[in-house]
Amino acid sequence: MEPIYLDHAATTPVHPKVVKEMVPVLENTYGNPSSVHHYGRQARKIMDQSRYTVARSIGATEKEIVFTSGGTEADNMALIGVARKRENEGKHIITTSIEHHATLRTAEYLENEGFEVTYLPVDETGMVAVSDVQKHLREDTILVSMMYVNNEVGTVQPIKEIGELLQEHPAYFHTDAVQAFGTLPIDVKELGVDLLSASAHKIYGPKGIGFLYIREGVKLQSLQHGGEQERKRRAGTENTAAVKGLQKAVELVEQERTDRNQRYLAFKKRFLQILEEEQVEFSINGNKDHCVSSIVNISFPGTNVEILLTNFDLSGIAASSGSACTAGSVEPSHVLSEMFGSEDERTTNSIRFSFGNANDEQQIETSAKKVSEIIHRLT
């Protein structure tokens, strides 16, 4: 059986059109964008065009976009950069208990540096209450950081409502939009965010490139020291080819977002329909009313996630137990533990299936039937 990839939330295959755009840059545009000669100007032109495309896609200006190596660096830059720049104004940060480890580990680092972090809880659907944000806001709160879409269960957080709440408070508002970018339409002004992280490899672009939106006027300390690239916010020679790939991936998203979401939603519905037809016992983890089309997290009672993933893989089905960064870990999902409690069996019997451009309807039907067979055999 030909392998079937149902792990698009972990990473996506690079779109052929993105590869086509990147190859000429790798072959011919090798100049340093900081150089004033012809070769450098060629590279600088690509950087400028890409920055414009990325900025426009989220309702920002070119000055507000800093290219990074991906979402993790962008999250680190946002949290640590704000904390160090504003520590004289306060040392309190608010985030959530279900953030990606790029945020959680950074928050833990800041706690060790003397900052106080409040981790907001979530309900059984993985949703944060706006009232909880309001309740924990203090005069010395300098930053609120909350992911837009949870990478494990697909729940969409009330970012706009929280942005409105924070309009009257001096704390900066950061959102990790790595799973949202490319799936949901984003306007940073409408959302009321001051900082936003995104990554190319979640939208069929290359790995190793992402960006941080930093609203003009936001105070942020640089984490890297060296040259004056990225308006002195990120030293180091830029990855021109990857930036070009990001630009093309963003252009494709803008052209195809609606069609993609409709296709992914159809895949999700068909997958679940077949599980029901095959009389598989399962439940869905997450918020059914506020979720992205491409992710479904499913609990299979009486099973074990390690055994499931092994059997799926042997059958040619690539899925995940949650965050890709902990895919090799046998520990229960921290997201599901926060949603249901650490002793709940759903923390150790749930699988994330995430659909995307690598799939077609036949693959969805085949994989759902294979999954059904495996579940029946194991239970």
From TrEMBL:
Cite the Pfam families for this sequence. Aminotran_5
Alphabetical UniProt keywords: Iron, Iron-sulfur, Metal-binding, Pyridoxal phosphate, Transferase
Cofactor or coenzyme needed: pyridoxal 5'-phosphate
Glycosyltransferase listed as a keyword:
no
- Domain Aminotransferase class V: residue ranges: 4-365
Iron-sulfur as a keyword? yes
Q: Which family does it belong to?
A: Belongs to the class-V pyridoxal-phosphate-dependent aminotransferase family. NifS/IscS subfamily.
Query: What sort of enzyme, by top EC class, is this?
Result: transferase
Q: Which domain of life is it from?
A: Bacteria
Residue ranges annotated as transmembrane are none
Q: Which reaction does it catalyse?
A: (sulfur carrier)-H + L-cysteine = (sulfur carrier)-SH + L-alanine
EC number, UniProt record: 2.8.1.7
Q: Which SUPFAM superfamilies match?
A: PLP-dependent transferases
Give the protein's recorded name.
cysteine desulfurase
Record-linked InterPro entries: Aminotrans_V_dom, Aminotrans_V_PyrdxlP_BS, Cysteine_dSase, PyrdxlP-dep_Trfase, PyrdxlP-dep_Trfase_major, PyrdxlP-dep_Trfase_small
